[in-house]
Amino acid sequence: MSDDTARVDTWLWSVRQVKSRSKASAECRAGHVKVNGKTAKPSQKVAVGDTVTYRVQGFDRVLEVLQVLKTRVGAPLAVQAYADHSEPRPEPMRFFMPVRRLPGSGRPTKRERRQLDALRGRDTNEGRFR
Predict the structure, then answer these.
(1) Among residues 76, 67, 36, which one has the least CA distance to residue 52?
(2) What is the mean pLDDT of the chain?
(3) Residue 35 pairs with which residues in a beta bridge?
């Protein structure tokens, strides 16, 4: 193995993106890791300039390899080994009140329907004929 490449599972573990190398291997086998747009096996080699994309908690992380690491390093050094090109995660809803109506209460009135639409973020007049 040359010094300018490393296994993708080892690299993900080295730059502290996953807690263990076996977890990184499992992520690769499950198809959650891509190198340069192609699904990667755990033994796939990465080099400087490659793009590693992997799925974490339902969101994609897009990392550009700036430095090849084969051993786990401290957090300040790990951050210098990649450039994060991921899109920012959306803000979680701060206030959420589930909309429930009592069973048997009938259809909502026009006013109640408009309030429900406003709560759900829908336009009341969307899709209506004029």
Answers:
(1) 36
(2) 87
(3) 38, 52
| 81, 46 Cβ separation under 8 angstroms | no
CA 42, 48, 54, 60: dihedral to nearest 10 degrees? -170
Instruction: For residue 37, give the DSSP letter.
Output: T
pLDDT of residue 38: 94
* pLDDT at residue 126 tops 70: no
Question: 57 in the Ramachandran plot: left (φ > 0), alpha (ψ -120 to 50) or beta?
Answer: left
- Report the first-to-last Cα separation within the chain, whole angstroms: 70
According to DSSP H, which parts of 30-89 are helical? 75-79
Residue closest to 32 by CA, chosen among 9, 50, 55: 55
